[in-house]
């Protein structure tokens, strides 16, 4: 939801639409790579609250493991939730994250998943498990290899983002 307003630009007053700051918006980066996608979110959404989820993927089994959960017990009524993770490969991590979010009283239609790159296995899992969920991604790459990496993909998004 938006509200109308005016801002002073260097050249004069401009009429603008702002995202309504009275509406509760939460951004949930899946650590650590998700931090890159929320780095400047507060400049666009100044009233957001950021909650962190730490989920790692076992290199052998590709199963997610939750090591940090800083979600509230319950999100405020009507909250809009952005779950951000640069890579949606097998879907295990994002499904685990969404299950935790849903335990906090959020409906699928209130959640948006944002990624840079996604692959069909993750999108299929999301479609099967979260009817009405919206997923926004920069590109859909064709496949995932036997190590659970998107091909062609970017490699390990956290390593690439933080130079490790």
UniProtKB/TrEMBL annotation:
<keyword id="KW-0021">Allosteric enzyme</keyword>
<keyword id="KW-0328">Glycosyltransferase</keyword>
<comment type="pathway">
    <text>Pyrimidine metabolism; UMP biosynthesis via salvage pathway; UMP from uracil: step 1/1.</text>
</comment>
<dbReference type="InterPro" id="IPR050054">
    <property type="entry name" value="UPRTase/APRTase"/>
</dbReference>
<dbReference type="GO" id="GO:0005737">
    <property type="term" value="C:cytoplasm"/>
</dbReference>
<keyword id="KW-0547">Nucleotide-binding</keyword>
<keyword id="KW-0342">GTP-binding</keyword>
<dbReference type="InterPro" id="IPR000836">
    <property type="entry name" value="PRTase_dom"/>
</dbReference>
<comment type="similarity">
    <text>Belongs to the UPRTase family.</text>
</comment>
<keyword id="KW-0808">Transferase</keyword>
<feature type="domain" description="Phosphoribosyltransferase">
    <location>
        <begin position="2"/>
        <end position="164"/>
    </location>
</feature>
<dbReference type="GO" id="GO:0004845">
    <property type="term" value="F:uracil phosphoribosyltransferase activity"/>
</dbReference>
<dbReference type="Pfam" id="PF14681">
    <property type="entry name" value="UPRTase"/>
</dbReference>
<dbReference type="InterPro" id="IPR029057">
    <property type="entry name" value="PRTase-like"/>
</dbReference>
<protein>
    <recommendedName>
        <fullName>uracil phosphoribosyltransferase</fullName>
        <ecNumber>2.4.2.9</ecNumber>
    </recommendedName>
</protein>
<dbReference type="GO" id="GO:0005525">
    <property type="term" value="F:GTP binding"/>
</dbReference>
């Amino acid at each position: 939801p938006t509200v109308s307003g005016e801002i002073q630009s260097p050249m004069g007053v401009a009429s603008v639409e702002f995202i309504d700051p009275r509406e509760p918006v939460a951004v949930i980066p899946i650590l650590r790579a998700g931090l890159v996608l929320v780095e400047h979110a507060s400049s666009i959404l100044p009233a957001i609250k950021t909650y962190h989820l730490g989920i790692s993927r076992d290199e052998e089994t590709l199963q997610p493991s939750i090591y940090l959960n800083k979600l509230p017990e319950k999100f405020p009524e009507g909250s809009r939730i952005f779950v951000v993770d640069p890579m949606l490969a097998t879907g295990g991590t994002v499904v685990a994250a969404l299950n935790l979010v849903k335990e906090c009283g959020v409906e699928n239609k209130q959640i948006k998943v944002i990624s840079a790159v996604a692959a069909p296995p993750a999108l299929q899992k999301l479609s099967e498990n979260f009817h009405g969920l919206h997923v926004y991604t920069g590109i859909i790459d064709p496949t995932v290899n036997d190590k659970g990496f998107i091909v062609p993909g970017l490699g390990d998004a956290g390593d690439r983002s933080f130079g490790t």
